[in-house]
Structures are given as structure tokens and as C-alpha cells.
Model the fold of this input.
Amino acid sequence: MRDGSLLSQVRTKVRSVKYSSFSVAIVCAVALLNACRTDPAVGARKHREAGDRQAAAGKYAEAVIEYKSALLYDARAGEVRAKLADAYMKTGDVGNAAGEYIRAADLLPDDVSLQLQAGSLLLLGGRFDDAKARAEKILNKNPKNVDAQLLSANAQAGMRNVDGAVAQIEEAIRIDPERSGTYSNLGALELGRGRRDAAERAFLKAVELRPNAVEPHLALANFYWLTERRDAAERSLKRALEIDPRNALANRVLANFYIATNRRDQAERPLKTVYEVTKTSAAAFALAEFYIATSNDAAATSILQQLTSDPRAAVTANVRLATLEHKAGRREESYKKLDAVLASDKGNLQALLVKSTLLLSDGKANDALAGAKFATERHPDSAPAFFTLGRIEAALRQPDQAIAAFQEVIRLNPRATEAKIALGQLHLAQGRPDATVGLATEALASEPQNGNAELLYIRGLLAQGEINRAENELKKLVARFPESAPVRTQMGMLLGRKGERQAARAEFDRALKIDPNSLEATTGLVALDLAARDFSSARNRVDARLASSTPNAPLLTLAARTYAAGGDTAAAESFLRRALDVDSSYLSAYGALGQLYIQQRKLSQARAEFEALAARSSKPVAALTMAGVILQAEGDDEGARQRFERALQFDPEAAVAANNLAWMYAEKGGNLDVALHLAQTAQKRLPDVPEVNDTLGFIYVKKNLAPLAISSLKVSAEKDPSNALYHYHLGLAYASAGDKTHAKQSLTRALALKPDFDGAQDAKDKLSSLDLQ
Done:
């Protein structure tokens, strides 16, 4: 039966029963509703008083409901909005609290305390202009309001007007020189502009004025911590806890201090105290995360299970429990928990990102990618969503897409240190160390103690050839993180680069003691073995690694290169084939296989590998370039030209492709202006490579720009003095410039090095003509 006919039957029946009890009840309900509507003050008062009772009983979530109901009757009730804001704050919902405080302050413009509270939350949200405007309204009425002075100062600091902020603080001190908190504010500002001594004096003055208060001791501890005076910081923290052992903030800071100073076992007690004192879900999650970090999964699970009964914390608790299930190997149960969350809220950001991360770890990268993309579509303003997407794109070896994702993270959150580090690593892998150093510098400006950012900075310096600067920074990092395998490995690489092989070996060995699975450290030791021509030790080393774990593509590629260096090309080829079976997207294996075929003079097979690599890669610059080089070697200049041009379509600054294409144009009578542009592009990326300078110099000779040709060709001849072709081109440049003496010297040198090089007859003819002049 259709709904319409059923509805008509019900209506008919209601009309036929004129005075049933049902109709009387309807009439009464309507009358009561109309009575409430005619007197909204009654409903507003009823819900406000109910909210007050719930708040007094500590039931703040229930109070929120009552106050919101009261506002349905009178949306402009400023006092109710203030109470709602207080209740939100008690539940830890700072976002909603901030909105209600601001609305309440707008409705009650003469309530100074509300204006200050709203201004403080605007400050916290980065709305510095709005916070300053609130402060100025108060100061216009009462210039001596110290709290408004401080609010204005902090807003100006946020707007980077540090001098103005300090001046405002100093005015506040002049008004009330006995107020401890003002000095703590001054100390923070002085530290921000690099005046450590002035900052310390201000923090100490704050303690002097309130020696038995927790807050000034915490501010002083934070100052000492930031300036790397850890013993002094710990003394100040402990003094704060002597004053109030149950102070939640002091215990939270002490726990963070212990974790940051690698004394994680001592952090449990203060974290438990915070949980016992506050009873908040945030404190419970912090304690659970501590237990997870210390591998006490049972304790973490116990806390998280309790949180699943709290409607405000249940989703986060279930998501964290899902990660623990996955960690314990119960993957099906893990995904069930996540899918249950997503069934009720398919766009839940936490569940989407955790599920994508777990799928990636399970080798289901494409499913992980789909989930991360969906997360960014549903949450286009979420930096964590784009960060997860970037990680997955990087794992899929799609560097351009990963770079775009991490750049979006930084756009959304300019202080996203981890995104800057990840982006810097991608730039380093693509041969852009300048960008790497810049990003690492930005990350260190935000987090000066970030070891990963410092390590990235060092790697960027090394890639730039700044060995001395890198060594100085690395020594500091080793002192701070003596038990870090990546830091020890990097020191080994630096020492190896300096030729200090024994010291390098010691660093790699130490790194492997810290982390036996470090492939970087193993690679370093293999490189030292091969440099010493100890092929047996190198093979034994990779064989041991292959036997100790399931081989992945990078390890199999290392094994291939090790065996190839010892002359066992058949084994090398087998390892590379296995690497591609394990991970068909591992581009390095394709490249190594192509190089192996080139060494064996199997050019057609090599070209096939690079063509396959180009077909698989999203940005196949290297593969196309190598295919072009092989086609040149095979005499197929047209095919080579096409590959180089395609490579430059993907990357207009692809140096090798640009150089080779420039040479082809110059040598075969192509457009010299285009050739010059290509050669200049290559020289910009590879300024010290002799082949590149020779190409550029040769084009300058062709264009009769002898002085420019000489400067480029001299670089080539100096970098590779045994190359006859470079001396020949330099001789031509000198001859074009009218410098017969240097022309004859260079041409003679070319013929002495290799009497039958390409161009030898022209060199002889040019020498003869110079003798006749």
C-alpha cells in the first residue's frame, strides 16, 4: 500500500473520533507549547538554572546541553554564553569555548574579564589583530589595566612587532612593578629577540616576587630548557613540584622534560598524577601514548578500553586500539575497528589516516593511496591528511606528487617541521641540495633541537661540497645523540669521504650495534670493503644480511652491485631480477640493470631496461636520458634526440639530457641559439663537470664568442687534463681569439695525449696554419 493512501486513512479516522483522549492530549500539548512560546523567559530560566546545577555538580557535558537549550530562547543572553564557554572549557573543548567567549564578550562589552578571556583565546588561535583590538578597547577606558597591557604586548609579539611588545610590557611593569607574571612575559619576549641575559634577569625577578608560586618557577624552567641548561631547568621544575606536588601543569611539563632528555621511565609518575588530578580524556590519552611508546601495550589497552565508554573520546580510543591490534598481528580485528568507525562517519579523519597508514605498512600501497586521497578531498584544510598522502606518494616512488603534497602541508601549516624535513629529503634525492638546506634551516628555526632537521641540514651541506661546515655540525649532533644509528652512519660517510677509512668503519660498526637492521650502515661498510678491493668480505657481509631477514629491493640491489664489483655479473643480474620481482616499481634496480648491460656491451638489453623504466616512472627523466645515451652509442642519433627532448619535457633543467642534446645540435649543424640555451641550462645545474663546460665552450667557439669559450674550456681542461678533445677545443678557442701561443700549446697537448682522437687531423691543419701566420 502506498504511503499516501495510508496517511489518508489515518486522517479519516482522526476526524471520525471527535473527542477521544488522544485528541485531548494533542490539544493540551499544543496549548503548553504555545504557552512556552509566548513566555520565552520561562524556558530560558529553566534551562539556565538546570545548567547551573549540572555545572555545580561537575557535570559539564550536561551543563553544555542545558545552556545551549537556554540560548534557543534568547540567543543574545551574554551571561548564558559566558557560562556555556566556561562549561566547554571544562570539557576540554577549547575551540567551541573560544567561539562562545568571543560571542559573550561582544554581547557584554563592559565586562572586562570577558574581553580579556576572549582576547586570550584569539591570541591562542593566531588572530593577533583581533586580540590587540580587544586589548585596546580596554586600555582606552583604563590605560592602567595591566592584563590588557600584557594582552596587547603578546598580540604585538605575534605580529612580529617585538620591540613594540617589549615597550608595552615595560609600561605594564611601570604601572605595577610587583606583578610577577609581567616579568615572565618580558623574559619570553627578550628571549625571542635573542637577549638571553635580559630574559634570565626577568624570569628570576618573577621568581623573586612570587617564590612560593608554581607559575614563575615553570617559566624559569622553560627558559633554562630552551637555552639548553637542562640541570637548571630540572631544578626549577622540581622546585615547582615541591610547592604543589599535585599541580597538573607542572607534572605535565616534568613528564615532557623526562621524555625529551631520554629518561622516559621517569615520566610515568608525573603523567599518572596529571590523569589522577584532572580526570580528563586528554590526560588519559597522554598516559596511554606513554605506555605505547614504552611497549607496555597492555596498560595502554586498559586505559583506552575505559575511554570507549566516553562518547567524546570513544572514536579516538577505538582508532588507537585498532593500531594496537595491528601491532599485535591481529590485522583483521584492527581493520574491523576502523571500519566500524567509518561506517558511522565515513569521513572521520582519524580513522581514514590510520587506516591508510596501516594499509601502507601491509604492502597495500594503492589502497592506502586511495584512502589518503579521499581524506584530502573530505578535509581539504587538513595538514595531517596531506602529510599522510605525501608519505604514501613517496613510498610509491612518485616524488613529484609527494613534493606537491608536502608543499600543501606547509601552505596549510607554515610551521610543519616534519613536512619540511620530508620535502627536503625529496629535494636532496632529486639533486637539489640548495632547496634541502633552505628547508632544513627553516625547520631548525622553528625547532632548534630537532635532530632529524639537523641531520638533513648536514646531508644538504655535504651534497653542496661544504665538508668542513658539515663536519662541525655533525660533531655537535654526535655529542647530542651518541646512540643514534643514522647520526653515526652519517659520520661514517663523512669520514669515508675524507679518506679516513678506519675511523669510518668504526662509526658504521657502532651504528650497526645500535641498529642491526641499518641498511645505510651496511652499505657504508660494503663500500669500504670494495674500496679496499676486499670483495670476499663485501660479499660475506651482504650474504649475512640476506640470510638474516626477508630481502627487500634495496638490499637485493646492494647485493647486485657488490657481486658486480667482484666480477660476478651473472649473480648481479640474478639479484636485480629478484629485486624487481619483490618491487616492480624500484627504479634503482632498473637503472643498475641497465648499467650492468652497458658494461657487458649488451646495449640492446640495456636500452630495453631503460625504456621499461621510463614506461613505469611518472617522471622518467633519468631513464629517458640513459636510453638516449645508449641510442647515441648505437648510432641512432634521431632516436637519441627524441629521448633527450622527451626528458626535457618532463624537466626543462635535466642537465645531462640538455648537455647531450646541445652537443648534438652543435655538432650536427642544428640551431646554435637553441644549443647555447641547452648548454647554459646544463652548466647551471652542473657547473664543475668538464663534459658540460666543454659542450658550452664548443658552442661559444661555433658562435665566435672566443673569450666566453676560453673561460669554459679552461675549466674542462683543468678538471680532466688527460682528455685530448678538451685541449683541442681550447686550442680552437685561443686561435679564434688571436692568441697563437696558447692555441699552439693546447693543440700540441691534444695531439700528444691522443694522436688519433676525433678532430686530430683538424688540429694538425690548424697548427700548420698557425705556423704560416
Observations:
- Residues 1-38 have pLDDT under 50 and may be disordered.
- Residues 21-38 form the longest helix (18 residues).
